[in-house]
Specification:
- The protein is 35% helix and 24% strand.
- By secondary structure, it is α/β, with parallel strands linked by helices.
- The chain folds into two domains: 111 residues, Rossmann fold (3-Layer(aba) Sandwich); 172 residues, Dihydrodipicolinate Reductase, domain 2.
- The strands form three sheets. It has a seven-stranded mixed beta sheet.
- Strand 11 and strand 12 form a beta hairpin.
- The model has no long low-confidence stretch (mean pLDDT 97).
- It binds nicotinamide-adenine-dinucleotide.
- The site of nicotinamide-adenine-dinucleotide (NAD) has 23 residues, from helix 1.
Amino acid sequence: MSTITVGVLGAGRIGRLHTDNLLRMPDVRVKTVADPYVDFADWPPDGIATSAEPEFVLSDDEIDAVLICSPTPTHAPLTEAAAAAGKHVFCEKPIDLDPGRIRRTLDAVDRAGVKLQVGFNRRFDPTFARVRQAVVAGDVGEVHIVKITSRDPQAPPVSYVRSSGGIFLDMTIHDFDMVRFLTGLEVVEVFAMGAVLIDPAIGDAGDVDTAITTVTMAGGALAVIENSRQAVYGYDQRVEVFGSSGSAEAGNETPNRVAVSSAAGVRTDNPLYFFLERYQASFVAELEAFFTCIRDDREPLVSGRDGLMSVLVGKAAARSMAESRPVRVEQP
Ligand SMILES: NC(=O)c1ccc[n+]([C@@H]2O[C@H](COP(=O)([O-])OP(=O)(O)OC[C@H]3O[C@@H](n4cnc5c(N)ncnc54)[C@H](O)[C@@H]3O)[C@@H](O)[C@H]2O)c1
């Protein structure tokens, strides 16, 4: 297969981002974008067809692969329908909020024999991939502690919070996947605490805006993940893996490398503002990896099992917070 023909389901924030990235990729053609609720007045660019019906994309024999960029509750049914239609699937995270539903979807994908990659883009971030490389190379030795700081610059609207599945399945889910990716170890237990310190409306919606999760990995390594929905200085994304031989640490990325020194102190610019800026390279790299696995008939680097595992950890964290106790993570 030289050119891969793609359909995109969902023309919101992430659907537009992926489509715009696809347009710059060689040997990839975006044929159609489908979204029932968008009028397509100002987007996409000429040359891409639009439809109000996802089914229009799924029934198009020319389309080899679909990107599912619609809201979370649609991911499992659309993945199953796409797989049944013989399309390879790139599905945004999470596949679903219900592990049972995810298992049924993964079975459907297996039966259809198509590829499924889940949108854990941060694995493809060059900085975090370098940390993983240091761990694989043995520079860190035996992993003892992982520290992840993940703070958004601005809390989302409460309407988003209500349908997000809660902070652990919406936000920390990336960090759970990152702990598994960086260490290559499975998560076996979590102990989570949360607080509402930023926006009382988030509490009224049944969620928290501040959280700390401690994680126990298979073999005994520990991780601590801290999340905030609002860091006033920008998107704060830092990781460290510490072990018996050393540590690999990644700090924030700024728009430039300039430090301005004066009698008052030394200043750099704030971190890149949010995920669209900070993780731009990873969004391109994850799709390139998806197309490579289709072309070379290889397993995707982020599997359906990874998608399921992150939700199982997120569920355990939500339960841990609700019950104020450590909770064992159900294994897939
Ligand atoms: N990997 C990441 O970093 C990342 C970042 C943002 C969002 N996401 C995920 O992507 C998904 C979409 O998030 P978003 O922020 O782009 O949301 P959004 O609300 O901006 O966009 C979703 C779009 O899907 C459309 N839609 C609704 N039902 C549909 C259907 N049945 N078929 C096709 N389109 C449909 C909506 O009209 C909307 O335009 C969510 O599951 C979210 O968790 C992932």
